[in-house]
Amino acid sequence: MAKDTKNSKTKKTAKAPGQISQMWTVYKMTAQQDKTSVLWAALAFIIILGGFIAFDAVTFPGNVVNLVIFSIMGAMFGIIGAMVVMGRKAERAAYSRIAGQMGAVGAVLANIRKGWRAAEMPVAVNPRSQDAVYRAIGPAGVVLVGEGTRSRVKVLLEDERRKVSRVAPGAPVEFVYVTNDAEATALPDLSKTLYKMKKTLNRAEISVVAKRLESLGMNIPIPKGIDPTKLGKMRRG
Fold this sequence. Notes:
Strand content: 5-15%
Structural class: alpha+beta
Largest sheet: 5 strands, mixed
CATH class of the largest domain: Alpha Beta
Shape: elongated
Helix content: 55-70%
Order of helices and strands: HHHHEEEEHEHHH
C-alpha cells in the first residue's frame, strides 16, 4: 500500500512539469507567430501592478508594509492577467494556423459558450468540393456558418435555411461566411461575430428551437484536414 501511495504521488508530481512545459511551448509558439503577444502580456502585467501600487499610494500613503503587500498582490494578479492575455493570443494564433482547412469552423464552434448551442460536426457537406455548413443556435436565432467557397456554400446555406424553416417556422436564420474571399468573416473572429449578433431569442425559445432542429441531424463526418477535438481539449485543459 505504501509503495502504491508513493507511486501515485510520483505520477502526480510528474504531471505538473508536463503541463507547465506544454503551456510554455504554446506561449513560445504564440510569441513567434504574433510578435505583439509578449508586449500585450507585459502591458497587462504593468497596468495591473501599477493599479495596485497607485491604490495603495492613495489609500495608505507612507505605509511601507501595505506597499509591500499591495505590490505582491499586484504582481500575482498581474501574472494572472498576463496569462489570460497570452491565452487569448494563443487561441487566436491556433485558429489562424488552421484557417482554410476543412473542419476549422467546427473547431471554433466546439468552444462556443454564453448561451449558444453548436457542434463541431457540419450539418451539410458537398462531397466533391468539401464545402460545409455548420449550425449554431443561440440568442441571435439559428446561425448557419458556411466554410469553403462562397458561391458553392451559398447553395448549401439556402438549402439548410429551407430545412430549418420547415422544422422551426418563425425562427430567425442568419448566414455567416467563413470563406476564401475578402468579405468573409475571419476564422479567429467567428466567436466574436456570433456574440455580437442582435439577440432575438430567450433561453426558453432557444431550447425549443434546438429540440426541433435535432430531427435534422448533425452526424456528418468532417472531411480530412484537422482534428478539431484536439483544439477543443487544449482550451478546456
